[in-house]
Amino acid sequence: MQEQVQIAFRGMDTPMGIEDSIRGHVAHLETFFNRITACKVLVEPEHKRHHQGNLYHIRVDLVVPGREIVVKREPSAHHANEDIHVAIKDAFDAAKRQLQDYVREMRGDIKAHVEPEIGEITHLVRDKGYGFLRTSDGNELYLHKNAVVGGKFDDLHVGDKVRYVADAGENEKGPHASTVIPL
């Protein structure tokens, strides 16, 4: 980590051993992703005058390349936050899940959502189960009958407008549509 872990306790004394516990959780996060650049943790009780079982707000801010991951554990949603150790563990478990999602996204394991575009059917070869559509920028995409949602390939006609998602790769027919939805 490029910066020291910052730990703050608001409205309470620092409980013995909690800082070490938090640093241990941060070290555990670094085993999943070793490029965390900064980490800030805030711990505060919900009410200052509880006689038994305070509930704790826990906030974990992680800075990673290109993003900030923020986890807030609110006591009203998590009654187990009555034990400060459990509250901190829960917050770091949530941070770990978000960090793992971030790592999967960085590796390309999570695909970005692609918005369908509008195109027009230009050619159909029904007996062979394929055709072509023209994109909004004038290019032509191959489409296989299996790419047509709902098995409605036979309902398509030249000139029909369709929504489509272009596949990033090419097949033997060139650029192609992976999903086609008749309008």
UniProtKB/TrEMBL annotation:
<dbReference type="GO" id="GO:0003676">
    <property type="term" value="F:nucleic acid binding"/>
</dbReference>
<dbReference type="InterPro" id="IPR011129">
    <property type="entry name" value="CSD"/>
</dbReference>
<dbReference type="InterPro" id="IPR036567">
    <property type="entry name" value="RHF-like"/>
</dbReference>
<dbReference type="Pfam" id="PF02482">
    <property type="entry name" value="Ribosomal_S30AE"/>
</dbReference>
<dbReference type="InterPro" id="IPR012340">
    <property type="entry name" value="NA-bd_OB-fold"/>
</dbReference>
<dbReference type="InterPro" id="IPR002059">
    <property type="entry name" value="CSP_DNA-bd"/>
</dbReference>
<dbReference type="Pfam" id="PF00313">
    <property type="entry name" value="CSD"/>
</dbReference>
<protein>
    <submittedName>
        <fullName>Cold shock CspA family protein</fullName>
    </submittedName>
</protein>
<feature type="domain" description="CSD">
    <location>
        <begin position="116"/>
        <end position="182"/>
    </location>
</feature>
<dbReference type="InterPro" id="IPR003489">
    <property type="entry name" value="RHF/RaiA"/>
</dbReference>
<dbReference type="GO" id="GO:0005829">
    <property type="term" value="C:cytosol"/>
</dbReference>
